[in-house]
Amino acid sequence: MVEAKALVKRFGEFEAVRGIDVHVERGEAFGFLGPNGAGKSSTMRMIASTSPRSDGDLRVLGMDPDVDGPRIRARLGSVPQQDNLDTELTVRQNLQIYGRYFGLSRAHVRRKAAELMEFAQLTDRADAEVDALSGGMKRRLTIARSLVNDPDLLLLDEPTTGLDPQARHMLWDRLFRLKAGGVTLIITSHYMDEVEQLCDRLVVMDGGHIVAEGSPADLIARYSTREVLELRFPPGEQNGMGEAVAAFGERVEQLPDRVLLYTADGEHALAGVHGQGVRPVSSLVRRSTLEDVFLRLTGRTLVD
C-alpha cells in the first residue's frame, strides 16, 4: 500500500525527514510514533499526496504521488488532528456534501451517509448541527466522513486526542471494525496504549530518522524488560537510591519523583531491595510498556 525508500522532506535548509524507508502492507494497521518535530506529520502529508517529496522514492497504492496525486487522493481517507467539519451543517449534510466532492451520485451518498451514521452511532443525531455535538461525536463524524469514498487506505493523525476514555474506546472499536473489513490504517498517536492496541507494526521516529521498527511486542522485548519496578522515596531521600538498587535490575533510571528498575521479575527485585534494607514509601511492579521503549529511544527531554 505504501513503499518509501530514502524518503526526504526539506523546508528550505531544514530537513524534516531524513532518508527513511517505510513499507506498509495491505490490511495492516501501521503506526508512526515520535516526539514533536520528529517528522511524522511531514511523512503523513507526503503519503497523503498533499506535500511533494524532496528526494527519494515513494509509491502509494502503487502510484507516484508526483504524477498520480488526484488518483491516489480519490482512494484515500484522511482524519486530521483537528476536526474540520462544517459546523453550521447537520451530521447528515456533512457526509452527503463531502461525498459529492468525490463525484458520487446523490442517491449513493444518501445511502452511504445512512450507513456511516449507523457505523459511527450518530443516526439519532442525523439532523443535529455539528456545533451541538460533543467532542467524541465530532470525532466519530470526522472518521465517518473520511470513509464516504470507501477508501483503501485511511490516514489518522492522532485520532483520539482530547477525548475521554469512553469516547477513545468507542473509536478504537470502530477502527478495529474497519481493519477487519480490509481497510489499511496508518496512525500517528501520542497515546502509547492506543498504538499497542491498534497497530500491527510501527516505527519510532526521532529527528527525521527511524530509530526503531517492529510490532509493539517486539519493540518492548528488544528495548525494555518484561517488568518495571517503580520505587518512591520520601522527599530528599531519593538521591543515590538508583545506585543502591541497581544490582537488582538490568537497568535503572532515577527520576525526580521515583526510581525505575527494569527487570525480568519485579517481585524478585523488590525482595532484593528490601533485603538490602532499602525501604521505599511505596512500590509498584508493572509490565513494561511501549511508553518505556519510546522514552528510552527518544529521551525524556521536552521537545517543542
TrEMBL record:
The record's InterPro entries line, in alphabetical order, gives: AAA+_ATPase (IPR003593), ABC_transporter-like_ATP-bd (IPR003439), ABC_transporter-like_CS (IPR017871), ABC_transporter_ATP-binding (IPR050763), P-loop_NTPase (IPR027417)
Molecular function in Gene Ontology: ATP binding; ATP hydrolysis activity
What's its membrane topology? Peripheral membrane protein
Q: Name one GO cellular component term.
A: plasma membrane
SMART domains hit by this protein:
AAA
Q: Report whether Protease shows up as a keyword of the record.
A: no
Alphabetized, the UniProt keywords read: Antibiotic resistance, ATP-binding, Nucleotide-binding, Transport
Superkingdom of source: Bacteria
- What SUPFAM superfamilies does this protein map onto? P-loop containing nucleoside triphosphate hydrolases
PROSITE patterns (UniProt xref): ABC_TRANSPORTER_1, ABC_TRANSPORTER_2
UniProt keyword annotation of ATP-binding present: yes
Its GO biological process annotations read: response to antibiotic
Q: Where are the transmembrane segments?
A: none
Compartments it resides in: Cell membrane
Q: Could you tell me which residue ranges the ABC transporter domain spans?
A: 2-232
- Classification via PANTHER family: ABC TRANSPORTER ATP-BINDING PROTEIN, ABC TRANSPORTER ATP-BINDING PROTEIN NATA
**Family label:** Belongs to the ABC transporter superfamily.
Q: What is this protein called?
A: Lipooligosaccharide transport system ATP-binding protein
Annotated organism of origin: Prauserella rugosa
